[in-house]
Write the structure tokens for this entry.
Amino acid sequence: MLQRQAFHDALTQLPNRAYFTDYIHRADLRTKTELDYRYAVLFIDIDDLKAVNDRFGHHFGDELLVNFARRLEASIRPGDLVARLGGDEFAIFLDGIRAENSAVQVATRVRGALLQPYRLLDQQDLQTTASIGIALNREAESDVEILLREADKAMYRVKERGGNGFEVFGQDTLEGQLTPKFI
């Protein structure tokens, strides 16, 4: 019971940041022995949760977070993992992603599920959007912390553009700079 409390979010019952980070480190170890194994990370942030809390109260915001978590879980594939990193930030680990378009397909499905109206506390329909950043590991000698930062940065770039979308970060080998793709 103590281990569950240490590695799971009390509100949503999802794995927390510590669990998620450890999970990715274990996946990264797998890349050392399975040279063709790849994975991706999606960072997801609810757009304008503060406005929901201000308008309807924190109990509404909490209910939205729980419903949001259930939709994320329903949108992933077997073997993937959803976690709540804190506040209104969530993450998804995509297992066995071989190409950018596979991660984009999952992000598109997740985004579609999140756009459906929420019936909160059996009295209010609410629609919200989310910003999603995607990062794929690209080589057996990847750096997990850099990958997580790339996904986080991609998510914040979506937010800067008004939210309700996703961005994939890739490596531009000619200039050595990150090249965003906004969808």
